[in-house]
Amino acid sequence: MDELLTLEFDGGSRGNPGPAGIGVVIRAQDGTPLLTLGQYIGNATNNIAEYRALIAALEQAKKLGARRVVIRGDSELVVRQMTGAYRVRDEKLRPLYEQAQSLLRQFQEARIEHNLRHGNRLADKLANLAMDRRADVTDADIGESGREVDAIDQPSPVATKIGQRFGCPRCGCQIQVQRPSGIRPHQLRPFVCQCGMKMQPM
């Protein structure tokens, strides 16, 4: 994949240390999200969560076959340590720093930039959802542009029908409804592929 991908990462901890989560967004060159992922990582500090988020973003980009990436995070400490502006003084961070540097070197082209908090909203929301649910999440209610959408702007949920097919726009995986869900339409959530992408009706 020669396309330049943008990796957005965020990590947070409630208590520092305390329950922690990470958020990762990988965008195509036109800004379209290719992957959105939130993970609950147990108890950790803010800085450890930020490094874990960066590592997860780099690993996911490798899985997509990316060769050229720009990485953006709102942690000034992590960004400055990764670019060499700050030294890594905390011994607990050093193994994570070394792992991130090793992954970074595997890309043909890679640069890391500081992303102001308002530009990192989706990754932040994914991390917080993972902490709220204490589970992995792959969907944070985003629109076609990759921006968050309010509930009032979302299309009304529609119940599925027998035989209806859904496909993954990324990996091509397809599913077919054998028996529709019996729950109310307003409680329905989109089908999500095993690769993490939201599936679309075919």
Description:
The structure is a single chain. By secondary structure, the chain is α/β, with parallel strands linked by helices. The chain has helices at residues 46-63, 76-82, 94-104, 121-133; strands spanning 4-13, 18-27, 33-44, 68-73, 109-114, 165-167, 174-176, 200-201. Strands 3-2-1-4-5 form a five-stranded mixed sheet. The chain has a three-stranded antiparallel sheet with strand order 7-6-8, with no helix packed on it. A hairpin with a 5-residue loop joins strand 2 and strand 3. Helix 1 packs parallel to helix 3. The protein is globular, with a radius of gyration of 18 Å. The model is unreliable at 143-154 (pLDDT under 50).
